[in-house]
Amino acid sequence: MTVPAFAARARALVSRSALLENLAALSGRAGVPLLLPVKADAYGHGLEIVARHAATSPHVWGFAVAVPREAQALAALDLGKPVVLLTPPTPQEVPALADLGVRLPVATLAEADALPGHARAHLKVDTGMNRLGARPEDAVAVGQRLAERGVLEGAYTHFATSDEPDLSFAHEQFRRFQTVLSGLPPLLAHASNGGGILSLGALPGMALARPGLASYGFAPPHLRGVLPLRPVLSLQAQVTFLHDAHAGETVSYGGLYTAPRDLRLATVGMGYADGYPRNATLRAHVTVRGERRPVLGRICMDQFMVDVSGLDVQTGEWIDLWGEQGITVTDVAGWGDTIEYEVLTGLGARVERIAVP
């Protein structure tokens, strides 16, 4: 018996045009090509879809990832763009990554000495994030060792506060990075994340910029409007069941919501296991046939209920959870007491990613 291809109950529509417009705008403001972060399944948007779209952009130099598996997946796509690993691999992973052509992060003399001769390295400099990298007073020696071995391609740091209104520490971090670069031969230097591009613009001596969530259409509140960024991902879920709740009856776990009158309810195939925040309970809304409607009761693992009273809704119908217009992922993050990063990267494997124009 042939097993059918079972349909997803939730789908993320990933817009090629929005992504490419964002990348062009960000590269223009930074004044350099982009090293596009596609870690965490391209911030929940789908690694392959995003990478294939972005690889067609003249504004994208290459891709940045967080873990070796992501680098391996990108290498398998054979998109003709460099891949930079931003976090340290284990010593056992280094040879295979070098064989794949993945650019490797290096922060110590021991790491520099252990690289194969055909590797390409990006010196990681910790200018104040205190997460990864060589301290500025140690970084020049590591970079010089890499240069002596003929494997030094780039150097990078990461801003900790470039998305905050006060940019004084970001300027200090950049000053520290420039001091390190002054002791090294010419290389591909990169520092700005999305906040850095929006708040600081073009930075002297930089060859690349690394806009993360900004590439996907989001900016800190005080920086919205600096560039015309468009959200790349819209989320929809399917109505799986329709039923009536009578006045006085409760809805979902814990009986948190009591129907004030007879209601028509739609059960929707999306829950916190798919990435819709459970903390949005009693606050969330969705769009049904162009109308904003409340999510009733506690959000479940695989589904939630929506008031569709007065609407001619059918099972199998797709409703909008967020998009470029109306309800946004920023709204959903606010209802869930979290940030857009967490909501987007939390989208699970049961959510189908679909490329759209």
UniProtKB/TrEMBL annotation:
Q: NCBIfam families annotated for this entry?
A: alr
**Which top EC class applies here?**
isomerase
Keyword Transmembrane part of the UniProt annotation: no
SUPFAM superfamilies attached here? Alanine racemase C-terminal domain-like, PLP-binding barrel
**Which keywords accompany this UniProt record?**
Isomerase, Pyridoxal phosphate
- Originating gene: alr
MF terms from GO for this chain are: alanine racemase activity; pyridoxal phosphate binding
Q: Which family does it belong to?
A: Belongs to the alanine racemase family.
Cited function: Catalyzes the interconversion of L-alanine and D-alanine. May also act on other amino acids.
Where along the chain is substrate bound?
131, 301
Task: Identify residues that carry N6-(pyridoxal phosphate)lysine.
Answer: 39
* Pathway named in the protein's UniProt entry: Amino-acid biosynthesis; D-alanine biosynthesis; D-alanine from L-alanine: step 1/1
- Its domain of life reads Bacteria
GO terms under biological process: D-alanine biosynthetic process
UniProt catalytic activity: L-alanine = D-alanine
PANTHER family hit by this protein: ALANINE RACEMASE, ALANINE RACEMASE, CATABOLIC-RELATED
PROSITE patterns from the UniProt entry? ALANINE_RACEMASE (PS00395)
Q: What is its EC number?
A: 5.1.1.1
- Protein name, please? Alanine racemase
Pfam families (alphabetical): Ala_racemase_C (PF00842), Ala_racemase_N (PF01168)
Cofactors that this protein relies on: pyridoxal 5'-phosphate
InterPro entries recorded: Ala_racemase, Ala_racemase/Decarboxylase_C, Ala_racemase_C, Ala_racemase_N, Ala_racemase_pyridoxalP-BS, PLP-binding_barrel
Q: What residues form the catalytic site here?
A: 39, 253
